[in-house]
Amino acid sequence: MDELLARAVQGVDPDAPGAFWRIFLNLMGLVPWAALAGWSLLFVAVGALLGWWRGRTAEGIVWAAVLGPLGWLLILRRPRRGRPPPLPRRRA
């Protein structure tokens, strides 16, 4: 934690008027944005695939973009769209 704080305040005068924003930008520079974007695209792609399989492609994309893998569970719990389920057989 001390290393993270040292990297965040590196080159920043804490008494300067714009110190908060400089520290904030230093912290944002430490975030692995490419990895986060890649994982997000993967989550949306899987959500689109699951949504397509359930007949709800747009819904799958939206839920996966908002909730990530938890959105997949919402899509899998929803009933399929398209053909209605078969009727039960009549007993003679």
Descriptive overview:
With about 90 residues, the chain is an all-alpha fold. The chain has two domains: about 1-30, no CATH class; about 30-80, no CATH class. It is about 65% helix and about 0% strand. The chain has five helices and no strands. The chain has helices spanning about 1-10, 20-30, 35-55, 55-65, 70-75. The protein is rod-shaped and about 85 Å long. It starts with a helix and ends in a 15-residue tail after the last helix. The model has no long low-confidence stretch (mean pLDDT about 90).
Please supply descriptive tags for the structure shown above:
92 residues; mainly alpha; 2 domains; membrane
Structural class: mainly alpha
| Element order: H for helix, E for strand | HHHHH
Mean pLDDT: 89
Global morphology? rod-shaped
**Tally of DSSP helical segments:** 5
* End-to-end distance: 74 Å
* Approximate helicity band: 55-70%
Instruction: Note the main sheet.
Output: none
Stretches where pLDDT falls below 50 for ≥5 residues?
none
Please count the beta strands (DSSP E, at least 2 residues each): 0
Beta-strand share of residues: under 5%
Radius of gyration: 23 Å
Overall number of structural domains: 2
Organism: Fulvimonas yonginensis
Transmembrane segments: 30-54, 60-76
Protein name: DUF4175 domain-containing protein
Keywords: Membrane, Transmembrane, Transmembrane helix
What's the topology here?
Layout: H1 2-8, H2 19-29, H3 33-54, H4 57-67, H5 69-77
Helix pairs in contact: 3-4, 3-5, 4-5
